[in-house]
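<amino_acid_chain>
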Amino acid sequence: MWTIPNIITMLRVVLIPVFVVVYFLDWEWARQAGAFIFWLAAITDWFDGYLARKLEQTTEFGAFLDPVADKLIVAAALLMITHSYDTVWITIPAILLMSREIYVSALREWMGQKGKSDIVSVSFIGKAKTMAQMLALIGLLSELEYFMGFPIYWVSLGYILLYFAAFLSAWSMVTYTKAAWQNLSNGN
């Protein structure tokens, strides 16, 4: 259980309350610091998987904890941006993204119980959704449109990527459902 990749994954879980507290501090750069902590946590997601394969330290605990850690920090970030922006234009894609995560997690668990988890394994669309979602959240959390007087349009890009992630999310959900449909429709 105490492998390097698992420790990094547990660090990601520990960063969630730190991320939330820092984000809501009454401090000029709190939003940007919170976005940085979220970015750091997102990077550890790639890093722990890479190390698990490279060091041959894959474990059942890590296979369980890694997606849970991802979903927890993304859910926290989605809730935070819906609170911060307080607009239906953020709330709708955030709800779609959270709903998809719950649905696909349940589908994967059910298919795993049937011994058919390979049917709904992570696809390229799912990975692209995750990348777009993480970049969108970093941009929206940072609330940066200008940095040192120069336009960078992070928030604008964040909006675009959030909708792109929501589109990919719906697409991947349909793809996973179609792949599992025969098992879903006949109860096997």
